[in-house]
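Case study.
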Amino acid sequence: MADKLRATQQLEQLQARYVGTGHADTTKLYQPLFPPHRIPKDTYASYIGHPPLLEYMSVATGEPMAKMRTRFIEKMIQPVGKPPEKED
Amino acid sequence: MADAEFEEIKRMQQERNAMKSKSKAFDPSTQRTDNTTKAALTETFDTTLYDRANGDKFAGYNTSIPANDDGDDDVDMDGGDGTRRLVGQYTASKEIMSEFANAGDDDMDLMSAKAKGGQIADRETDYQKRRFQRQLTPTRKDAFASDGAEGEGRSYREVMLEKELEREEERVRRRIEEKLKNGDGESDDAEHEATLKDEEADMENRDGATDGTRKRKKRWDVGVDDNTVVVKEEDTSKKRSSRWDVAAAPDATPVVKRSRWDQAPSLSAATPVGNQGLVTPIHPTVNATPVPSLPITFGHGDRNAPLSDEELDEMLPKEGYKILEPPPGYAPIRTPARKLMSTPAPMASSSGIGGFMMQEPENARILGKQMPTDIPGVGDLQFFKAEDMVYFGKLVDGGDENSMTVEELKERKIMRLLLKVKNGTPPMRKTALRQLTDNARQFGAGPLFNQILPLLMEKTLEDQERHLLVKVIDRILYKLDDLVRPYVHKILVVIEPLLIDQDYYARVEGREIISNLSKAAGLAHMISTMRPDIDHVDEYVRNTTARAFAVVASALGIPALLPFLRAVCRSKKSWQARHTGVKIVQQIPILMGCAILPHLKGLVDCIGPNLEDEQAKVRTVTSLAIAALAEAASPYGIESFDTILNPLWTGAKKQRGKGLAGFLKAVGYIIPLMDEEYANYYTSEVMEILLREFQSPDEEMKKVVLKVISQCAGTEGVTAGYLKENVLPEFFKAFWVRRMALDKRNYRQVVETTVDLGQKVGCGEIIERVVDHLKDESEPYRKMTLESVEKVIASLGAADIGERLEERLVDGVLFAFQEQTMEDVVMLNGFGTVVNALGTRCKPYLPQIVSTILWRLNNKSSAVRQQSADLISRIAVVMKQCGEDALMGKLGVVLYEYLGEEYPEVLGSILGALRSIVTVVGINSMQPPIKDLLPRLTPILRNRHEKVQENTIDLVGRIADRGAEFVSAREWMRICFELLDMLKAHKKGIRRAANNTFGKQSIHIHARFIAKAIGPQDVLATLLNNLRVQERQSRVCTAVAIGIVAETCAPFTVLPALMNEYRVPELNVQNGVLKSLSFLFEYIGEMAKDYVYAVTPLLEDALIDRDQVHRQTAASVVKHVALGVVGLGCEDAMMHLLNLLYPNMFETSPHVIDRIIEAIDAIRMAIGPGLVMNYVWAGLFHPARKVRTPYWRLYNNAYVQSADCLVPFYPNLDEDKLQRNDLMIVL
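After joint prediction, the assembly is written out as follows.
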């Protein structure tokens, strides 16, 4: 019991700190904070965070880096659309 | 300094001291005369290896300790002074005189034995014991239940009414007491009235047995009640209110004079005939409720004739019964004597019920030790106390479980589990606790709490038991959630006393429970439950309730509780409610500290008006609450106090006595919050009051004044000049007196205030004023002075001290140090700090100091010796600074001589002193030379005392570190084996300390020096042999040692032999090898890349072993290997190991799974997340939760540790929005 309790507490703490982490009850259904719906956000963050990658993309698409960055930041707002209506 | 010079100084000093005959510091009688523990430099010390040059030193001596040692040096007592006396002198015999001096074995200290008992009630104050007066109240309704069903129990309304009644009763009782005190004339009326009233009540109440007899009081054989009633009425006139308590508490009526008529005729004989039935006849006086309660018709007198059949027909019902034939062969007893014995007369038992009773199991309690420890269905308990029988008696009555109802079975089940938790062994406790928690909802709140709470009210409860029971409550609270509501008050009654326990942990526990309780029951229910207690008649209840409320506030947030608090603090009905309300506000900052800041304004406004309350008590507590709020808010939040500044200030001017103390305290805490200008103004204003109150004899006031002074001194706006001029003279006059040093709390406060003043006015100013007290004749006063001096100098340094003052200071400190009768760490610290602060200015005084130390090093008392040795370690640095190398050499030699010390504490200090000397003078110039010193340390390593071990190791380590070449390799070898031995200490605590504090270090020395001195082969052989020993501890240490040897002498010298050892088909050895490998790879780090392919087959084997521990240890090896080879191109091997590790994912044992996961994480580092995540994606959404859980754990670890690296490896999901088209861009 104590172990289980501790494990749950640790998990809760982990999830409070890192929104992308999940647990056994995480489903594939829409959950904005949990993977896999976290994927786009992380991806965009990664593009922005690696200037060489951003540069590569901007060269390929012919757009300035600043514009690319802004676009990626804007895309991070609800990247998978609006959350579904709550059932209850 | 030359030796001759030193001797000269020493001699002169001794002469001078001898002149001061009153001083005991240099009394030669305090010195040790036998120097058997001293060892000469020229002699070999370690006799196990070397023979002594001159044979047995003790030959011819009586080596055993005399059994009848008086230990009394007062030789004069025996023979007197030798003169003859004409008159005999009589005095107590020597045995009696020394009765308490040498206590024998049988002379136990009863008090200490009692203290060790650990019963909570033993160490409680009278105030805390008032918790026993509280009762577990009936269950309450759950007015806030979600489904609207309130359940049974009392409602809020009923409780409030009852409290009202209680208060009224209390009021009336007080009135009556007052009246009685005022005089008899008045009380007459009251008494008359009361009797009448009681008579009426009596008429209504008559339904008991006594009433029944009263009707028949004309009968001769009763003759009872007339007398008793009269007597009782007299009785009531004395203690009116107790009249109706009488029946409930039989011991309250002992003085009722019993006339002979009181007693039933046949039972009044001198020998209690009626008691035949019982083992021990009870003396008639024991029964406070006398026998007449017997149903009279069944007395002996009535049974002298058999009942006729007609009579029986009349008495017994006719239908549904039949008359049985007497069994064949039955013959009634005809002998009257035996007949008398056969049916014992019914006895009034202690419970007040007549009739013959079976002996209750409670009698078993008398048998003390024969209490069972093995309860059916529970197993072997750690203990079973007599008191437990009351609660758990049902378990041993051997009832048939098959015939019980479900409820009864449940009750027994709970009982059994509770007993296991309370009295069981740790593993039993754990499982029982788990069962209780898991099944809490099935058991239900009622049955659980009805058993737990009475246990907590038991008077003989011990700390451990209480802790466990509280833990049970805590756990089941989680599970029960809102089901606890009806029991909230009961729980509070039991838990609230924990909030005022002396034990810190008990208080914390209490807080935790109450905060969980309030989260489970909700604010509304908590308020409605505790509201009636807020103006309870008993101060104790109000106090604990206030504390509990503060906990509720911290759990549910202050804003939630604030409206309620505001209402309570403004209550018009009773001042008690206001008092409690303010008290809650006082407790909140104490509990929450600066977390109150956001709500400070609300809290202050809430209690502000109470500063002008009509009740003095409320005013005082309000000022204290404000002080607490200001203290917690410091240094912010002055604006919140704006509204109350004025009333507070006028209050402080108006009040006197206890009230004033509170107000001053509040002002004192608010001043530091103010800005400079205001603080300055208020300080000068408040100082007038403070200076006036310096003279106050009240202890409480003194403390407050000191506190306020130190706070005022600390504020910005107060200048040093002002303090010097106005405060210091008065302060020193009022508080630097001997009397203040006697009370511990005053003492501390004075020292603190002095130091705070010193921060402003400077070190010299303070020292100048107190330095002369160092030579005062009162020891506590000297101590107080030295402590102040120490603290002032420690924080401000000694630069401010002039030459003349410095002389006086050192002289004073030396005097205080020499004259101490109780060796105190304060003196030691003081001396050390002063010497260190003065630094090179100490040089002129050092010879004197050293000679004092030397003198005291030879003292009879071990404490003195220890202290002087400690002092050497403190001043060694300064001695070096002063260039007194010769003196240090001298000290070193003396200390060396004292290494034969018997007292481990002292020996530890001596070693510490040697160490500090070695540190400052350096190995090369150490006196005595290292080659002499080290061999003497080797036998000391065997000493099992922690302090000795720690200091020796440190000393040896220092020598090994810097001067290993001074000693032969052989000697090092010996030392190393001693060190390894040391880790086999018996007590776990010591072992752990050994491991933590110096285990590693000692093994370092060990491994390094053996390895360096004699090459790794010999060592390894020994170490590998060590792996085969049974003790786990030494195997672990050996494993560490192997790792270190491998690190120092390159792994290839160790690894082959180690891996060869793995072939021994023995679990312990193989595990040991794996463990060594784990340490080895941890230590060698990147070197591992050359050995990965060599150990992989071994790991392969270990990872597919059946034994769990095997795989666990192998996993930890894998982890260290993998972390070592990150980025070094061993990915193929790592991949291979991952494949072997992965099937272990579903291990459930926490240790195993932790190691496995760690290993997988480490491999992820080595081969990159992409590959490892390929394994993980598969199981994240597996239909079985058992599978999903560990997979998510892996995913989470990966996400937390390398989220960014995961991005390229996220799977491509079909869902439209999840497509990552940007990744498709190609240049």
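Observations recorded in class. The two ends of chain A are 33 Å apart (CA to CA). The longest helix of chain A spans residues 2-17. We will return to this complex in the next lecture.
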